[in-house]
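Record 1 of the preview.
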Amino acid sequence: MKVLVATKKGQGIRDNDFSFVPEGDLVRHGFDCDGEEVDGSCGCRRSLSGMRNLKGTTTFKVADLPLTVEAYQKELLASFRRGLQGLPKKEIDKAAKEVLDDGTLQHESERLLKIAARFPVGTVLERRGNFIQPRAVSRSAQPKRLAPKAPRAKATRSTKRRSPASQLRSLR
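->
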């Protein structure tokens, strides 16, 4: 079955890449910070999390593993449970039951498996906000700018030379 797994291949192509997930570990969506930009300092909007260690990686690939959907969902549920470590066992069990009962586990597994099914085995991928896309594995193969874009200065309406004070006022 095609699934998404962590890879180091393609790391370093973007200036803000990171990988704290062992090669080959299954990956899933983690949590996104409110208001975080794709290339923000957290990295939550450009990464997936390892199912076993719950850490992030900006590169992952499609792999064909001998898993059934049931076994995959079991791994995903175990990952959700790991994310709740530190809570009382009763609370973890309650949350796990909710994830099963409300369809969250089913939805997340279907979403991840659909993503994997769209690409050939071995394709290195990246997350860019709500999008998963192929990742070039060398700088020369990447057609677009890879470093985070610097914010642009706000355009002014007038081409007349203005004092620094009036320029600051127009930026407010």
